Sequence to fold (126 residues):
Amino acid sequence: MAEDELTQYSTDARKIEKLRQKIGLSVSAAEQKQIKAQLQAELPDGGLAKLVETQRQTMALPFWGIAGLGLLLGISFMQPVDFLATIVGTALAIAIQKWGWKLEAKRLVLKTLEDIEERVRNPANA
Fold:
């Protein structure tokens, strides 16, 4: 559900609002707490994973460059070995972007669960 919301061009608050409704209808309160605890344990607080989560396209950009350069050199110098750089660079770039996408989706679910929990505690602010 969260990955579907990431495809929409809207603010995080709007994504959380739409996701909150979906989670509220399909997941019980006990399951929500269990999922929240699991996500808090899984999500990184720093390091490379946090950087990939927030800047996945920037982190994948050098590998897209390597892929393009391998393709260019492979075609211009007629060297089949250079196509290996294209394959490896493309695979790494896609893997980094997928990893960042999944981390961002998990973070969105965690924020949504925290928002639901806050609204349950303080219904006057909702």
Summary: The chain has a mean pLDDT of 89. Residues 82-121 form the longest helix (40 residues). The helical segments are 2-6, 12-26, 29-42, 47-54, 56-76, 82-121. Residues 67 and 86 are 4 Å apart (CA to CA).
